[in-house]
Amino acid sequence: MRATALRLAHQGAFRSSSRACAPSVQPKFQPHFSRFTAENITKWVPTFAVWGGGAAVAATLFLSSVPRYQVDILHKLPFIASYFTGKSTSPRISFG
């Protein structure tokens, strides 16, 4: 049996399938900056917050004895200011 145009049309050979024209999975543009996308950034924000908080606490601990750091930063914090005000850094020794 020879394949005529009428038979092929009846069998669906000339029909365009929806899968051939438009695939169901198409690439989508993701806005990014360099290699960082919004999804990656939101995944890493809690980690960066914990490490940043730890770095701030460590910097405060190490710099708490520096007078300039005490005046500029520690005297302005509500609960910590009373600990650092009114103390002299040099002991008062009387010699006689």
Automatic annotation (TrEMBL):
<protein>
    <submittedName>
        <fullName>Uncharacterized protein</fullName>
    </submittedName>
</protein>
<keyword id="KW-1133">Transmembrane helix</keyword>
<keyword id="KW-0472">Membrane</keyword>
<dbReference type="GO" id="GO:0006122">
    <property type="term" value="P:mitochondrial electron transport, ubiquinol to cytochrome c"/>
</dbReference>
<dbReference type="GO" id="GO:0005739">
    <property type="term" value="C:mitochondrion"/>
</dbReference>
<dbReference type="InterPro" id="IPR019182">
    <property type="entry name" value="Cytochrome_b-c1_su10_fun"/>
</dbReference>
<feature type="transmembrane region" description="Helical">
    <location>
        <begin position="44"/>
        <end position="66"/>
    </location>
</feature>
<keyword id="KW-0812">Transmembrane</keyword>
<dbReference type="Pfam" id="PF09796">
    <property type="entry name" value="QCR10"/>
</dbReference>
